[in-house]
């Protein structure tokens, strides 16, 4: 169940990051409310995942999935460019997350 919580937390993390861009410095009400709720949801579900996962593993995977999801959705929503170096970085993050998961014995 902790891995499910971690995936939910990562979705909240992606929503938080994308929402932060939409707030325009927290000057827009509804994007700001959405962003704060997403941040709270992410931290809450991450805390549930960390009941049984090592904090180093859980946090690293949470931020890794959040980073990749944010870059991919940022490209789709905000038309940000995905370059070859970014693709290499994504592959490195994914490989690191897989190794951490295997090393955690889960």
Automatic annotation (TrEMBL):
Q: Which UniProt keywords apply?
A: Antibiotic resistance, Cell membrane, Membrane, Transmembrane, Transmembrane helix, Transport
Q: Indicate the transmembrane segments per the record.
A: 29-50, 57-78, 84-103
Where, subcellularly, is it found?
A: Cell membrane
Q: Name one GO cellular component term.
A: plasma membrane
**Bilayer topology:** Multi-pass membrane protein
GO biological processes: response to antibiotic
- Primary site of residence: membrane
Q: Which SUPFAM superfamilies match?
A: Multidrug resistance efflux transporter EmrE
The organism's superkingdom is given as Bacteria
The GO terms describing molecular function are: transmembrane transporter activity
- Return the similarity comment: Belongs to the drug/metabolite transporter (DMT) superfamily. Small multidrug resistance (SMR) (TC 2.A.7.1) family. Mmr subfamily.
Xref: PANTHER family: GUANIDINIUM EXPORTER (PTHR30561:SF0), SMR FAMILY PROTON-DEPENDENT DRUG EFFLUX TRANSPORTER SUGE (PTHR30561)
Q: What is this protein called?
A: Multidrug resistance protein Mmr
- Species of origin reads Nocardia terrae
């Amino acid at each position: 169940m902790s891995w499910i919580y971690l995936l939910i937390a990562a979705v909240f993390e992606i929503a938080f990051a994308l929402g932060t861009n939409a707030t325009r410095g927290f000057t827009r009400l509804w994007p700001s409310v959405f962003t704060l709720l997403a941040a709270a949801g992410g931290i809450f579900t991450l805390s549930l995942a960390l009941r049984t996962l090592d904090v180093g593993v859980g946090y690293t995977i949470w931020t890794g999935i959040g980073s990749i999801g944010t870059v991919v959705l940022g490209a789709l929503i905000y038309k940000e460019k995905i370059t070859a170096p970014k693709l290499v970085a994504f592959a490195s993050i994914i490989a690191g997350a897989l190794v951490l998961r295997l090393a955690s014995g889960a």
